[in-house]
Every structure is written in C-alpha cells, then in structure tokens.
Amino acid sequence: RTEPLVLGIETSCDETGIGIVRGRTLLSNTIASSMEEHARYGGVVPEVAARAHLEALQPAIDAALAESGVALADLDAVAVTSGPGLAGALMVGVGAAKALAVSLERPLYAVNHLVGHIAADVLDLDAHASLSPDRPQGKLEYPTVALLVSGGHTALLLVRDLTGDVELLGETMDDAAGEAFDKVARLLGLPYPGGPEIDRAAAAGDPAAIAFPRGLSRASDMAKHRYDFSFSGLKTAVARWVEQREAAGEPIPIPDVAASFREAVVDVLVTKAIAACRDHDVPRLLLGGGVIANRRLRDVAIARAAEAGVEVRIPPLSLCTDNGAMIAALAAELIMAGRAPSTFAFGADSTLPV
Ligand code: KG4
Ligand code: ZN
C-alpha cells in the first residue's frame, strides 16, 4: 500500500487547523485559535473568525511544514473542509486549498467536517498512548456509532465505512451541546468558553440537586426524534430556575446548578448514543468534538457503555477539537480507497450533508 502524504486545512469555526499525515501516520497538527477574540462577545463571531483564519493560515502552514520536516513539493494531495460550518470561515480555507493545489499541481480533496472528526480515530497513535488514556489501542473499526459534540455541532452517526457509508442518525434541533454550556455559563455570570467553567463549578455541586429536563427524551419524542437532541429547553429551564431564586432574594447555588445542568446534558447524550449502539447492534462508540473534554461525559459514557457491552474510543483531545490532521487523515483514507479527487467546482457549503 502506498501511503499518501497529505496536508489538511480546517477553518470551519474558530480554529485554523493545519495537519500533515502520511497514510495513517500523524506528522503534524498545528492549531491557531481565535477563541480569545470571541470571548468578549460570548460566542464565535463569524466575521471575526474569517478574518482571523486569513491571518493565521500562512503561519500555520509554515509551522506544520517545519514540525513535520515536509516540503510543500513533497505533498501528494491537499485536503480541506468544505462544510458544514461558518460560510465565511470555510471560504478562507477553501480558497487557500485551491490555490495550494493549483500551484503544486496536486489533487484536491474537499471533505465533510463531521466525517473528518471520525477520521481522527484512524490515525495510528499507539506510540503516543500517553496522549489518550481513554483510547484503547488499535484504531477505528466498522461499524461504529459516533457521537460528535462541540460548540457548533451535536450529532450521532452510524459509520459503516468512512470513505462512503456514513449515516446521520440524528442531530440537535436547536443549540449544540457546547453552545448550551456557553449560554448557561453566561447566565450564571461565568466567562466564555463556558464548558470548562461549568465543569469546574460542578465539581463542588450535587448533580441530583435540581431535576432539569432531558430534551427529546419523553416516549412521545423518542418515537420521532430517537437520536435527535434539543438543549434550548434545558437552557430556558436553568434561566427560569435562577430567575425565581433571584426574585425570592435567595442566593444561587452555582455549584449545584452547574452540576445538575451538566448531568442533564451528559445523561441525554450518553442515553441516546447507547440506544443507537443497541438498536443497530454496534459494539463500538467513538466520541469526538470539544465537549469531550468534559470528564463527567467521558466517565458516564465509559461506565454505561461497559454495561451495554460497548467499547468507547476517545482520541486525544488535540484530535477531538477541530483540527487539520483529521481532515488530512480522511483524505488519505479516500486516496487509499481509490476515490477520485474533487473537481474545482466546489465551494464552501455551510450545511453540507454527510
Ligand atoms: O470543538 P471545539 O473546540 O470547537 C468549537 O465548536 O468551536 O468545542 C468548543 C466547545 C465550547 O462550546 C466549549 O464550551 C466546549 O466545547 N467545552 C466544554 C468543555 N471544554 C470545552 N464543554 C463541556 N465541558 C468541558 N470541559
Ligand atoms: Zn468540529
């Protein structure tokens, strides 16, 4: 098998990610984030993200080449995220990738961001085992259910083949899970990004203190939205609970609110993911996305999956958050499977389906 040398570009949200792989070997994974620029707005501002990508791209490519010792001329292909994501942000990466592919006279692979997250798990990381204590040895096997949770997406997928058979089982109907963490943090007066802040506050709280709603989990919802998620009702329930306390002149027990909110999110995510594994008789669950940094989510997923006879795979966090290595890895898989490159007709598609 020949192992293609691929450079991947990821600019779908606020991370400018450049990754270089040779087949399934990770050579570099460079990430520049504009998160700090968004902090004062309490969320990612698309225009700010797009401009930041434009500034960060060239230095990030140079850094990835330097780290891997690869010369541009050695590349076999260029890969880029063409969607889903923020349109303006995607366009910066797509434009750069086209320019690079044309100037190097190399094939260009436009790939789906969500499928890219799954591809993070094909990389051969056994030599880096300490990076990912929760990742069993070996790599992605089929079929696998994937739960992807970040500030921009929350989706459950059934993966039979990364290079051509990925089925979207369900996704969020409103807010992404990370977005819910960010919004609830804000209403508790905690800074952005809210996930780590809620996590910290929750450590001292009681997850059973307040019974917050589990979105789309009633029997009537499960019939139609078995694998879909909804977090806006939960966010509203937390807001109402806090308002009532304040109106009564009582203090807000932030640790208990944070722990109870986190438990509601984790419970729904894990319950639906395990249901998908059982329904489809799939003994593997892959986790991805920035919210996977949540220790409680990892622990509950690992415990409940064990009860269900399901193996949980969690790539190292640097490959769970948005990055270019996963995009390069997916393109390398496509090349090794003999798939044709993209024509140059593609653009950025903010709602690109899997
Ligand atoms: O994948 P990611 O880095 O990129 C974006 O989606 O932009 O995910 C960031 C999201 C944010 O919403 C952040 O609050 C959330 O992941 N997050 C967490 C934790 N760490 C980051 N959510 C819950 N618990 C955490 N420990
Ligand atoms: Zn992502």
From TrEMBL:
It is found in: Cytoplasm. The keyword DNA damage does not apply. Keywords: Acyltransferase, Cytoplasm, Iron, Metal-binding, Transferase, tRNA processing. InterPro entries: ATPase_NBD, Gcp-like_dom, KAE1/TsaD, TsaD. Its EC number is 2.3.1.234. It catalyses: L-threonylcarbamoyladenylate + adenosine(37) in tRNA = N(6)-L-threonylcarbamoyladenosine(37) in tRNA + AMP + H(+). Gene3D superfamilies: 3.30.420.40. Fe cation binds at residues 113, 117, 322. It comes from the Bacteria. Transmembrane segments: none annotated. Residues 26-328 form the Gcp-like domain. Substrate binds at residues 148-152, 182, 195, 199, 294. Binds 1 Fe(2+) ion per subunit. The keyword Acyltransferase applies. Its cofactor is Fe(2+). Belongs to the KAE1 / TsaD family. Required for the formation of a threonylcarbamoyl group on adenosine at position 37 (t(6)A37) in tRNAs that read codons beginning with adenine. Is involved in the transfer of the threonylcarbamoyl moiety of threonylcarbamoyl-AMP (TC-AMP) to the N6 group of A37, together with TsaE and TsaB. TsaD likely plays a direct catalytic role in this reaction. PANTHER family: TRNA N6-ADENOSINE THREONYLCARBAMOYLTRANSFERASE, TRNA N6-ADENOSINE THREONYLCARBAMOYLTRANSFERASE, MITOCHONDRIAL. This is tRNA N6-adenosine threonylcarbamoyltransferase. It comes from Microbacterium awajiense. The lineage of its organism: Bacteria, Bacillati, Actinomycetota, Actinomycetes, Micrococcales.
